[in-house]
Write a structure and sequence with these properties.
The structure is a single chain. The protein is mainly beta and 95 residues long. It is 0% helix and 48% strand. Strands 1, 2, 3, 4, 5, 6 and 7 form a seven-stranded mixed beta sheet that branches. The radius of gyration is 13 Å and the shape is globular. It starts with 9 loop residues before the first strand and ends with a strand. The mean pLDDT is 94. Bound molecules: copper (II) ion (CU).
């Protein structure tokens, strides 16, 4: 696993959902920061945490979903509609 450089972490990250893939697959933010997902596909997707910490519900084409991460940790999520889509991660670090 690639070490996280917390010096480069910021309070905001963006993830595109494109071609049934979360891109980038891993984003790192500071605790209290926001991740924004944008669905660039023609079909609905979700960003759903495997541990239930967040769930976007259906994100329509060209719509966004934002979640504020208050607790440090590694959050693995997937699209609950398409089980073949690869999992992705949000890493939240304390500043
Ligand atoms: Cu999907």
């Amino acid at each position: 696993m690639t070490p996280v450089n917390i010096n480069t972490a910021t309070y905001a990250a963006s993830v595109d959902i494109n071609n049934f893939t979360f891109s980038p697959a891993t984003v790192t933010i500071l605790a209290g920061g926001t991740v924004t997902w944008t669905n660039k596909d023609a079909v609905d997707h979700t960003a759903t945490d495997l541990d239930g910490n967040f769930d976007s519900g259906h994100i329509n084409t060209n719509q966004t979903y934002k979640f504020i991460f208050t607790k440090a940790g590694t959050y693995t999520y997937h699209c609950s509609i398409h089980s073949m889509m690869p999992n992705a991660k949000v890493i939240v670090v304390n500043n």
